[in-house]
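Need GTP cyclohydrolase 1 type 2 homolog's 3D structure for a figure. Predict it.
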Amino acid sequence: MKTSDFEKLMTQLFGKWLKEFEDEGEYGFTHKGKKEINVIAYATNLTPETVEKAHSRGADMLITHHDAWDFVYGMKEGCVDELKKHNITHYFTHYPLDFVEFGTSTALFERIEIDEITTLSTFKDNEEIPGIGIFHTPRSFTELKEQLEHVMGETVQAWKNHDRPIKKVGILTGAGNHTAIIQYAQKQNCDAYITGERTLYSVQYAKFAGINLYVGSHTFTEIFGVENLVLRIQEFYPEVKVVNIEEDHIESGKF
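Structure prediction for GTP cyclohydrolase 1 type 2 homolog:
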């Protein structure tokens, strides 16, 4: 696969979401290296460690959900130096991957074997809206916690705020910790809400609103969306090898 082929495929896969965020720095190349792409490595985060691991796996390209954001001071420059040194192309897709139909929230629903996704996560009127799904056979509070921990391979924090079985679930992966997002899930009659970060206020509000709250890590609630993306690339270019770059569980302890 050539880099130009990859660019065309991103337009095809993401469609309207690239136009939605084209001027906001939410996707794109951090560095263009090799023109021929035979091995794609993928991870949630662009860090010096993920670049080095991609190099050790023989990758021509690294795809991540996150860029090395400017507020993580100096890290982006360090990553670019490593990408140049190893001649690795890097591409990230943030908001487009959060809201495309195969994206991060959908992918986590799939991994916890939800029976029906009734609403996809989306971005509307400058607001993030969680995905909503239904278990046809309700889960207990503990069953859902254990299932999430099994899928993500890490400890999941959970707050039980009612005694109902869990049938309807809201998910917004990553930093879906705003109380307005939890309120949306509660108004949709969700029994549980799953995300990748928390604040004092998200925990307080979930308790007040009577909705069970589950919080994994930002990294490992979102990795499955990146995996969905690279598997779709491989459907179009089956000769391309894809490899997962395992990141450390630095946000919550490895299970």
